[in-house]
Amino acid sequence: MDIAYSYLEGIDLTATFIFLIIFLATVLWMTCPKSDIPGPRAWPIFGNILLVSQFNSTPKRAKFVEEMTRKYGPMFQMFLGPYQIVFVQGHKHVLDVLQKRGREFIDRPNFIPGIKLAEKVKGGSGIVFANGDDWKCMRRFSLQAMRDFGVGKSSLEENILEEIQNVADDLEKMKGAEITNLKEMMIKASCNVIHSVIFGYRYKHDNESLQKLIKTMDNIFSGPGSLTASGLFPVLNLIMKDNLKVRREGLSTLKMYIEKHITEHRESFDPENIRDFIDMYLVAEKEESERTSVLNPAALLTSIIDLFAAGTDTTATTLDWTFLWMIQYPDVQKRCQEEITKVIGPGRMVRLSDRRHLSYTEATLMEIQIMSNTAIFTLPHVAVCDTIINGFKIPKNTIIIPSLISVHFDEKIWRDPKEFNPGRFLSQSNDIINKEYLIPFSTGPRICPGESLARSELFLTFSNLLHRFEFSKVDPDDILSFEGITGITTTPSPYRLKADLR
Question: What UniProt keywords apply to this chain's record, in alphabetical order (predicted)?
């Protein structure tokens, strides 16, 4: 009897303790300063955790935000537990946050448990989620390395053109048959390009190591991000289906792959023969060794993970979108091909130096990017100080999510923004205009460091494949979907096409 009484007494004390915690948390929640930014009602402790998780995991993320915007207006807030998240939309406010006052919103929310855990798996913050002096140093180095081994170098352009030739050979082997795996062809090429910049060599397209690497990248880009219930409470990954386990396993696999290459580079390093990004980093690391520096082995590893992940999937996904749009609008495709044939002729490949003479082709590629919205939002930013957006007070450490799609579809900029029209980027004299409103790689201080490389890949691949092939529907009656499926990037819904030699 005494044992039973003691047991019940223990349960009673535990229940009382839990009640007190919830009561105190509720009081703190109710007495903290309230924001006047509109948004759905937030619950004590959990905030809008279900809505935030729904936003981050729904394959129709853009529609979800459209519904929220209709209800609360172009600027609204939600809470992930105690973390305030403010969604910013429209070109005026998005460009204000990212460009004009970019330094006020320059940080990343690496304080969220799910993000902290993911960074721990990688071994550090790298470029993407680093803040402060660490970020400045890593970004400065990465941009310099991308200039030295990337855009503007004839060797890189040759590598890109060789990869395009490999894709073209694969398409030619199809002999006009149905193609359902175009992205798989494109991702081999984009993976090889960034691989050559970082590691100094490329794979053959049928290489088993390349196939495993692509599978790893697919795992990293699958599923929701860290702004979810399991991102706030990582322990939920043990019981929730929409967990981050697959992504973490992908990051771990990529980490081991990169560590192996770094070790090989250290063993064969010759300061008189700088081969690639890793060698350049080893030089900088040695020069900084006598001073406190963020250029260390962990930073090298995590920066490569960030660059490799960002430089592979996004480019391949955008290229997948380009040919979906081309089979939907054969008249636009034909006009691009006529321009390319007139400027290039039949005997050679399109090069970057031809870009300024291919205005309509360039405008078409820009229109494809603005209509496809491979990235609907930027990665989350954080206010580094108390500030104001659109008259609303924004406390320090507020998470800010600028909407790229809201700029691309802003009716204050564009007439009929959701109608496919490359002409919106051309002046009457056939010059490129309005490029400041195309921001698929974000803009401002936190713009993607691989932007120039990606733009070069997109232009060369798009123009050269159009120069060689005519793309069309397998069945003229095929109905194509342009809604897309949203994960970390927005990919086209499955579609089929065929490619015939011109």
Answer: Heme, Iron, Membrane, Metal-binding, Monooxygenase, Oxidoreductase, Transmembrane, Transmembrane helix
